[in-house]
Amino acid sequence: MLTAGESHGPQLTAILDGMPAGVPVDPDRVAAGMARRQLGFGRGNRMQIERDTVEFCSGLRFGETLGSPVTLVVENRDHANWTHILSAFGTPPAERGRELFRPRPGHADLVGMLKYERADARDILERASARETAARVAAGEVVRALLSALDIHVVSHVIAVGGERADVEGLSLEQIVERAEANDLRCAEGYDRMRAAVEAAGADGDTVGGEFEVVVTGLPPGLGSSMAPDRKLDCRLAGAIMSVPAVKGMEIGPAFLNAGRRGSEVHDEILPQSDGPPTRASNRAGGLEGGMTTGLPLVCRGAMKPISTLKKPLRSVNMQTGEIDKAAFERSDICAVPAAGVVGEAVVMMVVAEALLESFAGDTLSRLRDSLARYREGLRDRMRGLT
Ligand code: EPS
């Protein structure tokens, strides 16, 4: 997948390559996915302007994929207010105001200005903006259609905001998802505490980060590879989660907790199953062993730093004068962790779909489905052969 587009340019574009033919895509489901990303307590005024809808420009006919690249376009409604600022040609407008010369600590502004030799950080921040994730979520919804057709399901929820953690002990995944989808922080527990943390940060002109979890169910064992380091699914998922804007940390299952425990408290015991390959007594490995899926739920977590645009700014340098100054402030979010979870789903879906297409025939959905079913049957037969 390739995406293009500036935050306040006319549109975002994604081109998704490699989708099998014959995958039914429901426009209402795509729209619902886009709406989930726009939700979230702590978002700024931009979300009042945008109504993210997806226009399909290639790769789809009468609601089914053709096997050709899928082009998706999401309009930036806010562009109407920025036409003279984000103009492809002409000269910069005489009036000033939308340039950014005081780079924000934590944002791509300063390093981008240096690297690309730009005097105005707007040339950097427009593309570094998390607005780009709308394009990835659009493409992700097409991939979700493929995974759903194979009974593979991807969900997410927020596990921490502003230092407040959700206590989900004892809740099933279904309960977690049901609760998380019912509120604008997308959390299964701790809503009031998290909301208060966002409100308090906002009142102080500050921002908060947090953590989200993406869970994939219905996967066969063996996706990914133990044969080459860069083909390990852990490695590819880490890259995907870390590609979500502002994510600075990632773990598979409770990896950081596991690091402080003994092996006997961490590893998932292997138990026989009456009809199928052995299963595990627990899933502390987060669904991956040796770089491959175990067949248990795949659990990926991302840690998002606080939004770097601060109403009460930190110190910075005015790049026009070289003098110390306050960092620039422009309209921004206080918290975007709920949206990051939805983006996390999209990027994880891409990795999982790619791994599926590597292991199983992928020209058409029906051949992919058959190939996967034969593989699962083979796993069962193999165990039957032992008894
Ligand atoms: C963003 C800044 C804000 C966010 C934006 C990401 O936009 P603006 O500068 O227009 O107020 O709202 O996120 C989105 C537009 C979106 O769709 O998620 C940033 O600097 O990363």
Structure description:
- α1 packs across α11, α3 packs across α4 and α8 runs antiparallel to α11.
- The protein has a single domain, classed as Chorismate synthase AroC (Chorismate synthase, AroC fold), CATH 3.60.150.10.
- The radius of gyration is 22 Å and the shape is globular.
- By secondary structure, the protein is an alpha+beta fold.
- The chain is built from twelve helices and 17 strands.
- A five-stranded antiparallel β-sheet has the order 8-7-9-15-10.
- The model has no long low-confidence stretch (mean pLDDT 95).
- It is 34% helix and 19% strand.
- Bound molecules: ligand EPS.
Let me know the largest β-sheet. Answer: 5 strands, antiparallel
The succession of helices and strands, N to C, reads: EEHHEEEEHHHEEHHEHEHHEEEEEEEHH
Within CATH, the superfamily carries the name Chorismate synthase AroC
How much is the average pLDDT? 95
Which helices and strands appear, and what pairs or packs with what?
Layout: E1 2-4, E2 11-16, H1 27-38, H2 46-49, E3 54-58, E4 60-61, E5 64-65, E6 70-75, H3 109-116, H4 122-128, H5 133-149, E7 153-161, E8 164-165, H6 173-180, H7 191-203, E9 210-217, H8 233-242, E10 247-252, H9 255-258, H10 263-266, E11 270-273, E12 276-280, E13 288-289, E14 292-293, E15 298-304, E16 315-317, E17 324-326, H11 337-359, H12 365-384
Antiparallel strand pairs: 1-2, 2-6, 3-6, 4-5, 7-8, 7-9, 9-15, 10-15, 11-12, 13-14, 16-17
Helix pairs in contact: 1-5, 1-11, 3-4, 5-11, 8-11
The chain binds ligand EPS.
Ligand EPS binds at residues 7, 44, 46, 50, 78, 129-131, 133-134, 330-333.
